[in-house]
Specification:
A hairpin with a 2-residue loop joins strand 2 and strand 3. This protein is mostly beta strands.
């Protein structure tokens, strides 16, 4: 019975790693093979300043499973073993691989094998990500491994921080804060015939690590860490431990699923109660709770607003469903939600927004396009060549970012 449980746990973990959050997505399609007039650039690049910017502290439950990030005034795009930095004010896009003749097809490239459906963190001028690579055994078989990588944006250098066997110990959740990395190490050694979640802390300057506590065989997500507390999420409950006393678990919210963000003073998260979903806000103790919006799905936070898509499923083609791609926003201080964008009539039945960020007046989206030839959609970030939508939320104009 123990051995069966061990192999079941391994199978579940592998499925979680290999599968992205969205089904029905066709990857690695050559976009030029598809007949679609909307691939042509429709509008020229333009920039309108705004007093609102993307918030650095973002959705830690699902924020890391898209391919578009915001950090320090730039938009970062990760696609098919490559990484790019886009300047929102000038429109310039730069390949972060500094080798001008690199084909990005071998492990000589720093971003080769990057898992864009896994956690990608940008902290203090460095990008941390998982890379799936392999080497050949003596018999010639491919042996896959995961590499935890660090890329220094300013120095343009990469280094391997850790190697995880494909079916061994690996990292389940990370949280980076200044010189510290907090992470949950999932230990799936066969000798134990089970797996354990070990909460650890690493000093990024010295590389020294320590085990803070054993969380058992329940999967947790690190949500927020400050000098006194560490907040975690178990899929339902949001709670914290005091770092100097890890014996007492303090639950501050239940029925908490999906979107969670924290700015150091307030939590914003999706509350699911039966068939009802709502966006709630409360302080670090779980008090002063306010409902900001009802009926939400994917969300993103700026300094002033929460942008979100409604929890309404929309059918594309024969039977492909996804959240309806209308974009609403509600002030973080409370107020009336307003619709700020919907696709025009010639796009609404074929396009879906998958993951998005908002900075100032612009929404950047990894999107899907339905093709009647296959009765399915492809994901823009995995197409060849890739592109990302940049939607002006004031005018509705779409500019396609591509490299």
């Amino acid at each position: 019975m123990k051995r069966m449980r061990y192999y079941l746990n391994i199978f579940i973990l592998i499925i979680v790693v290999l599968c992205s959050c969205d089904q029905n997505v066709i990857n690695d399609i050559n976009k030029n093979d598809l007949i679609n007039e909307n691939f042509d650039q429709k509008t020229a690049f333009e920039f309108t300043p705004s007093d609102d910017r993307a918030a650095e502290a973002q959705n830690v439950v699902t924020r890391n499973f898209g391919s578009v990030r915001y950090h320090d005034g730039y938009v970062y795009i990760f696609s098919s073993g490559q990484a790019f930095r886009f300047n929102p004010e000038t429109g310039n896009i730069t390949n972060l691989c500094s080798d001008p003749i690199c084909l990005h097809e071998t492990d000589e490239c720093p971003f080769y094998g990057i898992r864009t459906n896994q956690q990608i963190h940008i902290n203090d001028g460095k990008i941390y990500f998982l890379s799936q690579r392999y080497h050949r055994s003596e018999e010639g078989n491919r042996i896959f491994e995961y590499y935890r990588m660090q890329y220094d944006i300013n120095l343009q250098t990469a280094k391997v921080l850790e190697v995880y066997p494909f079916s061994g110990s690996w990292t389940g959740s990370d949280y980076y804060s200044n010189e510290w990395r907090y992470y949950i190490k999932i230990d799936t050694t066969e000798e134990k015939e089970t797996y354990e979640n070990l909460l650890r802390r690493e000093n990024l300057n010295t590389g020294k690590t320590e085990i803070l506590m054993n969380l058992g065989d329940i999967n947790y997500t690190l949500v927020y860490v400050n000098e006194e507390r560490i907040y975690l999420h178990d899929g339902v409950n949001l709670f914290y431990y005091i770092l100097d006393d890890l014996n007492n678990k303090c639950i501050i919210s239940d029925k908490c699923k999906g979107y969670i963000a924290c700015d150091g003073e307030w939590f914003y998260h999706t509350l699911i109660d039966g068939d009802k979903t709502s966006l709630v806000k409360y302080d670090m103790e779980g008090g002063n709770r306010v409902t900001l919006a009802e009926n939400i799905s994917r969300s993103y936070s700026t300094e002033q607003y929460i942008y979100y898509m409604p929890d309404v499923m929309y059918t594309i083609g024969e039977d492909i469903t996804n959240y309806k791609s209308d974009i609403y926003r509600v002030p973080k201080n409370g107020g009336t939600a307003e619709l700020v964008y919907t696709f025009p009539e010639d796009m609404i039945d074929r396009y879906v927004i998958l993951y998005f960020i908002v900075d100032g007046n612009y929404l950047y989206a990894n999107y899907g396009v339905y093709t009647s030839e296959s009765d399915n959609w492809y994901e823009s970030i995995n197409a060849d060549p890739y592109d990302v939508m940049r939607i002006n939320l004031s005018t509705g104009d779409i500019y396609y970012i591509s490299k």
